[in-house]
Specification:
alpha+beta, Beta-Lactamase, 5-stranded antiparallel β-sheet, two-stranded antiparallel sheet
Length: 284
């Protein structure tokens, strides 16, 4: 072998056994030259690749993508770079590759043939999938965070409303206790004193119930609603009469008249009815 032939042999070996697959095709896409690397990747003898069209080497999805997007680009622009494609393999699988192509023109400037180089892209494709997964995870976390912030805002609004209602509801039993205490400071018959003491005790119990609600709220136990102690046979008239009696004691200088006609017992929580009665709100 001459010294001049050695470089030519090296060039031929470089072409055939390059670390990338390499092919040349006519303007109609027909392959007329392909290296051994492409034959190895596809699992076909090199001579069987000749005469095939480039899109015949691709999976169905990427074949359509190539024909509709990158083959026209090769004709119009004369080149494309780093296109993600999938080669068919002899075992029925696929091989992820990155393709770049160039058009070679003749001396008259007309397209003579195209050269396409293919590089394995499994790691790159995996990295791209990981990026997509990370982006989706980030978007999911963003949505979850946004939802949590919305829930927190709603909880804060409910907390403010709850505290406002609580302040309003606490004023009434406090007024009853204050009025009863003033009346007890004066001379009162024994039965009246007992009635006032019962009134104070009832108001204290109602305030204790309201405070329990505050503690429940602070512990986060009200997310499923305020707990109820339901009774199937509650006579509402005595309950509401007691509410009015508290109001009369709390504002002794005012005349409060009430009439209730509720003959049928109902299923309810009597203590909650007392605490949330609209009668309190009707008093300015």
């Amino acid at each position: 072998m001459s010294e001049r032939a050695a470089p030519l042999e090296n060039l031929a070996d470089l072409y055939e056994n390059a670390p990338c697959a390499y092919l040349s095709m006519l303007p109609d896409g027909c392959i007329f030259k392909a290296n051994a690397t492409l034959a190895e990747w596809t699992g076909q003898p090199a001579d069987r690749l000749l005469g095939l069209r480039f899109h015949d080497l691709l999976t169905t999805g990427t074949s359509i993508l190539y024909e509709t997007s990158f083959a026209p680009l090769l004709v119009m622009v004369g080149a494309f770079d780093e296109v993600s494609l999938d080669l068919r393999t002899s075992g029925g699988g696929s091989l992820a590759v990155s393709a770049s192509g160039r058009v070679v023109h003749d001396e008259l400037g007309r397209p003579a043939f195209s050269r396409i180089a293919l590089f394995k892209a499994m790691k790159r494709r995996l990295y791209e999938r990981q990026l997509v997964a990370a982006k989706e995870q980030s978007q999911t976390l963003e949505r979850v965070t946004r939802d949590l912030l919305q829930v927190e805002r709603q909880t804060a609004e409910l907390r403010e409303q709850f505290i406002a209602v609580l302040g309003h509801d606490l004023r009434n039993p406090l007024a009853s206790i204050s009025g009863a205490a003033r009346m007890l400071g004066k001379s009162q018959p024994q039965d009246k004193r007992k009635m006032l003491l019962d009134m104070i005790q009832s108001s204290v119990q109602r305030m204790a119930g309201l405070i329990d609600n505050v503690l429940d709220f602070a512990r986060g136990r009200l997310g499923s609603g305020i707990p109820l102690s339901l009774d199937d046979e509650v006579e509402l008239t005595p309950v509401l009469d007691h509410v009015v009696a508290e109001l009369r004691v709390g504002v002794p200088g005012r005349v409060i008249e009430s009439t209730f006609e509720l003959p049928v017992p109902i299923r309810c929580d009597a203590s909650r009815i007392r605490n949330s009665s609209p009668i309190f709100s009707a008093m300015p």
